[in-house]
Amino acid sequence: MAMPSNVEALDIGCGDGKSTLAVATRLGIEGQVLGVDRQQTRLPDGEAPLNVSFMPADAMDLPNSKLAQVSTLYNVLPGLPNAGAVLAMLRKAAIVSRDFVFVSQVQFDSTPHLIRRGFKAYYSDLTSNRYQGSSFDYLRMLRSLFDEGLIADYALLECERIRDSSDPVIHSLQSPPDSGPYDPSMHRHKTLDVPFSEPIFKRMQLILCKKPAQLGKIARRLKALEKPDNVIYSTMAI
Ligand SMILES: C[S@@+](CC[C@H](N)C(=O)[O-])C[C@H]1O[C@@H](n2cnc3c(N)ncnc32)[C@H](O)[C@@H]1O
């Protein structure tokens, strides 16, 4: 299937299309929004606005040319097998985008903090989350894309603080793998209300900016999609 020529936003690894819909509506995109996924999944007919379409494709097979203004990777990178595959996907997204790449996904920095207290975040124990790199691992990948000249600025942010063990993402370490969010009627007992003194977060965001001096403007625009709580690192003030 041929890639449409006038794509404004490309949602890579769109799955059932919910992330594509969020990009289209919350970023207020009036041009074409295209979701691509190597599995043929998409929003049911009638639920997608007219400017949103879907195409089955492996993102790594997309041509190395500027295909869209922006691209998004929602919950895609943790499913890839290793750091090499993650960096290759980030590089591809940077190559096909004119303005910026936005990545949003669960983060794994909390794992050592939680395990010492007898807890885990359920998504750390999903067998589908094969790559569990830390913020620092991602920072090094962004730095190498910067060194290649592929991106001009970048930022790493986090959101959705986990304050104590009552949070539904938290499970006891005894819970089996592949449990979803905590449900007391289904899952092993966990101790509630244990406070987590260090700030730990559920999600991380990456902004890869293609043009210099645009990062602040793009970060403000992206707040409509998912508001960050904390900037971990940024190459310019945002
Ligand atoms: C966890 S789902 C996320 C779906 C959606 N973005 C969301 O947030 O609901 C990850 C998706 O990435 C897709 N994916 C992984 N590698 C891909 C690739 N190389 N090209 C296209 N899609 C890919 C998978 O098929 C899967 O549907």
- Terminal CA distance: 39 Å
Helix content: 10-25%
Count of alpha/pi helices:
5
- Tally of strands: 10
CATH topology: Rossmann fold
Cα gyration radius (Å): 18 Å
Looking at the structure, what is the overall shape? globular
CATH classification class? Alpha Beta
User: In CATH terms, what is the architecture?
Assistant: 3-Layer(aba) Sandwich
Major sheet: size, sense and barrel closure? 8 strands, mixed
Question: What can be said about this structure in brief?
Answer:
The protein has helices at residues 18-26, 83-96, 111-115, 135-147, 215-222, and strands at residues 7-12, 32-37, 52-56, 68-74, 97-106, 119-121, 153-164, 170-172, 195-209, 230-234.
Could you characterize the architecture of this molecule?
The protein has five helices and ten strands. With 238 residues, the protein is α/β, with parallel strands linked by helices. The protein has one domain: Rossmann fold, CATH 3.40.50. Helix 1 links the parallel strand 1 and strand 2 (32-37). Helix 2 (83-96) crosses helix 4 (135-147). The chain is globular, with a radius of gyration of 18 Å. The termini are far apart.
